[in-house]
Design goal:
The complex is a heterodimer of chains A (111) and B (117). Chain A has no helices and eleven strands. Chain A is mostly beta strands and 111 residues long. In chain A, strands 2, 4, 5, 9, 10 and 11 form a six-stranded mixed sheet that branches. In chain A, strands 1-3-8-7-6 form a five-stranded antiparallel sheet, with no helix packed on it. In chain A, β9 and β10 form a beta hairpin. The radius of gyration of chain A is 13 Å and the shape is globular. The relative contact order of chain A is 0.34. In chain B, strands 2, 4, 5, 6, 9, 10 and 11 form a seven-stranded mixed sheet that branches. A four-stranded antiparallel sheet of chain B has the order 1-3-8-7, with no helix packed on it. The termini of chain B are far apart. Classes of the chains: A mainly beta (111), B mainly beta (117). At the A-B interface, β4 and β5 of A face β9 and β10 of B.
Chain lengths: 111, 117
C-alpha cells in the first residue's frame, strides 16, 4: 500500500462546476499538506500549503485536511478551462522532511 | 516571491556526452534543493536531496556517479548527467526550499527536458 493514494483520473467536468480532488494517506505523523498544479511539460506550482487540520481558502481554491480520517481535499469553485492540469498532493511529517507525493489527478474542464 | 529558475529548458545531446542543468533560487536563499525526474504521465520521482555545502543524498537506485549534484551556494545547484544514454531522456525538475518567510516548502523550477539521441 502506498503512503499516499490519489486517483489518477482523468476527471472531466463542465466549466463552472465545483471540482473536488482528494488524497488519502496512511502515516498519522503527516502534518504538512500541499497541493500543487502541474501543466503539461512544466514544473509543479504550489497552490495551497496547510499545516495540521482545518480549512484554508485562497480565491477559488479551498483546501481541507481531516487528520482523523487521514483525508485531504482540494475544492475548485467556478472551474475554468485554464484549470485543466494535473493536481498533485504532497505531505510530510516535518517541514524539513522530503515530501511524499500522490500520483496526481488529471483534471479536464470542458468549455 | 519564491521563484526558481532552471537552465536550459530543453537540451538535445548525443549519447555519451555530459549535460549540466542549473537550478537557481532567484529571490530567496535555498538551504535545501531537490532534484526530480518525471517520465510522461507519471508522478515525480525524487532523485536526490542536497543541502548547501554538503554532499547530496541520493535515493535508492539513483547512480550518484552518473548524476552529479553540486550545491555550492545558497542560490545555485547543478545536476550533471554524465555519459548520457537514451534511457536518461526525461523531464528533470529541481525544487528549492528556504527557511521561514513562507519559503519553508518546496518551490519548483520550470523543468528541463533532456533528449539523448
Amino acid at each position: 500500500q502506498k503512503e499516499v493514494e490519489q486517483d489518477p483520473g482523468p476527471l472531466s467536468v463542465p466549466e463552472g462546476a465545483i471540482v473536488s480532488l482528494n488524497c488519502t494517506y496512511s502515516n498519522s505523523a503527516f502534518q504538512y499538506f500541499m497541493w500543487y498544479r502541474q501543466y503539461s511539460r512544466k514544473g509543479p506550482e504550489l497552490l495551497m500549503y496547510t499545516y495540521s487540520s482545518g480549512n484554508k481558502e485562497d480565491g477559488r481554491f479551498t483546501a481541507q485536511v481531516d487528520k482523523s480520517s487521514k483525508y485531504i481535499s482540494l475544492f475548485i469553485r467556478d472551474s475554468q478551462p485554464s484549470d485543466s492540469a494535473t493536481y498533485l498532493c504532497a505531505m510530510s511529517a516535518n517541514s524539513n522532511y522530503q515530501l511524499i507525493w500522490g500520483a496526481g489527478t488529471k483534471l479536464i474542464i470542458k468549455p | 516571491g519564491a521563484v526558481v529558475s532552471q537552465h536550459p529548458s530543453w537540451v538535445i545531446c548525443k549519447s555519451g556526452t555530459s549535460v549540466k542543468i542549473e537550478c537557481r533560487s532567484l529571490d530567496f536563499q535555498a538551504t535545501t534543493m531537490f532534484w526530480y525526474r518525471q517520465f510522461p504521465k507519471q508522478s515525480l520521482m525524487l532523485m536526490a536531496t542536497s543541502n548547501e555545502g554538503s554532499k547530496a543524498t541520493y535515493e535508492q537506485g539513483v547512480e550518484k556517479d552518473k548524476f552529479l549534484i553540486n550545491h555550492a551556494s545558497l542560490t545555485l545547484s547543478t545536476l550533471t548527467v554524465t555519459s548520457a544514454h537514451p534511457e536518461d531522456s526525461s523531464f528533470y525538475i529541481c525544487s528549492a526550499r528556504g527557511q521561514g518567510g513562507g519559503t519553508d516548502t518546496q518551490y519548483f523550477g520550470p523543468g528541463t527536458r533532456l533528449t539523448v539521441l
